[in-house]
Amino acid sequence: MEIRLAVEGDEVQVVELINDLIIELGGAPLPVDEATTTAAQFIGGGHEGAVIVASNDGDLVGVCTLTYQSSIRTLGKYAIIQEMYVAPKFRSAKLGEQLISKAKSLAENAGYPMIELSTPPDGERAESFYRNLGFTQVGVRMRYKFD
Predict the structure, then answer these.
(1) Residue 103: Cβ within 10 Å count
(2) Which pTM was predicted?
């Protein structure tokens, strides 16, 4: 197993993993072509942040996307884990911990003092996982989507 930054050529597998996450959460998968283009922009440095992957013999089995933001409430910049997913058959291999560790390291080394993330409404296992990694509960994220 290898934890690394995504590189050009990883886009399709990254999108497959993120679509698996969305489906697991009860959502509809993203359009593959559009999502692959967006993933390529993130991987190619077109967005501030990083795409971190877990690779098993060349196959991606985990992904963690990290973006950088700023706000007044945080007195400046902070990082957000936007997507975090490990394929079910690899969840006992501690890959989630390794992906989060890499995200923490990248954010801290880039000068970001904190990372935030959201968990699903029924995400007791996810909340426990993140608490065990030092995260604390700070609220609920909500969304308004324009038509």
Answers:
(1) 23
(2) 0.92
